[in-house]
């Protein structure tokens, strides 16, 4: 699998030619000024929750690409009201089958509202199980014991975890989360975009290394193999 980082919590994961975009927030992120939104391709867009720093470019990219948007039922309805036809509403529950594999919506300890403050349903994380491998995209979440359930459903090849603190897990809690989900290869997101989530990235990598884990922090627009 390939992962491209577009800044903040926005990543694109390619699975055997299928391009899956997560939480597109690019134009509002000064650090992502060199990302050309018009060139982003996506077959699916998964949205963890409704906050502006996760849906900022969602409607534009969904309209441009025609990607199927997968999110809570409330976000799916909001997308439809904004002219997006290809949606799949979901919630916490069993695995859902897609052409590329299956996905389970899992608990995320956070909040979720649209940019206008209206209710956006439950925040979600996603566990993907595919013929090419399995991974966990946590979205915005605090550390939760529910993460210990994930190894019952999937043997993860990597996990995408927030590490910036303040609104989500910090580095220390993300290391605990890696233990909970039984995965030692972590891609860090949700850090350094705003002053409240600024971290020392060198120290973060050292902390993960000291715990026997690998923290990957790709540059914006960088693609890595996983």
Automatic annotation (TrEMBL):
Is Hydrolase included in the keywords of this UniProt record? yes
Q: Tell me which Gene3D superfamilies the record gives.
A: Ribonuclease Z/Hydroxyacylglutathione hydrolase-like
- Record-level Gene Ontology MF annotations: hydrolase activity
Q: Which InterPro entries match?
A: Metallo-B-lactamas, RibonucZ/Hydroxyglut_hydro, UPF0173, UPF0173_UPF0282_UlaG_hydrolase
- Keywords from the named record: Hydrolase
| Domain of life according to the entry | Bacteria
Keyword Hydrolase among record annotations: yes
In this chain the Metallo-beta-lactamase domain maps to: 7-190
Show the SMART domains listed in the entry: Lactamase_B
Question: Where do the coiled-coil regions begin and end?
Answer: none
Query: To which protein family does this belong?
Result: Belongs to the UPF0173 family.
Matching entries from PANTHER family are given as: UPF0173 METAL-DEPENDENT HYDROLASE MJ1163, UPF0173 METAL-DEPENDENT HYDROLASE MJ1163-RELATED
Q: What is this protein called?
A: UPF0173 metal-dependent hydrolase GCM10023149_00320
């Amino acid at each position: 699998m390939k992962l491209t980082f577009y800044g903040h919590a926005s990543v694109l994961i390619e699975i055997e030619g299928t391009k899956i975009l997560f939480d597109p927030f690019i134009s509002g992120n000064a650090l992502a000024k060199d990302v050309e939104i018009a060139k982003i391709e996506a077959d699916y867009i998964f949205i963890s929750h409704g906050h502006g720093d996760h849906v900022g470019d969602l409607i534009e990219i969904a309209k441009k690409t025609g990607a199927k948007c997968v999110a809570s039922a409330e976000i799916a309805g909001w997308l439809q009201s904004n002219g997006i036809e290809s949606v799949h509403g979901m919630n916490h529950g069993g695995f859902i089958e897609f052409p590329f594999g299956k996905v389970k919506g899992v608990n995320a300890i956070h909040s979720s509202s649209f940019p206008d403050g209206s209710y956006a349903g439950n925040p979600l994380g996603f566990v993907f199980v595919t013929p090419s491998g399995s991974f966990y995209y946590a979205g915005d979440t605090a550390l939760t014991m529910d993460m210990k359930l994930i190894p019952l459903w999937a043997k993860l090849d990597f996990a995408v975890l927030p590490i910036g603190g303040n609104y989500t897990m910090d580095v220390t809690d993300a290391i605990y989360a890696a233990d909970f989900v039984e995965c030692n290869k972590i891609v860090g997101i949700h850090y350094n975009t705003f002053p409240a989530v600024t971290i020392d990235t060198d120290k973060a990598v050292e902390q993960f290394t000291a715990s026997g884990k690998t923290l990957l922090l790709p540059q914006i627009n960088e693609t890595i193999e996983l």
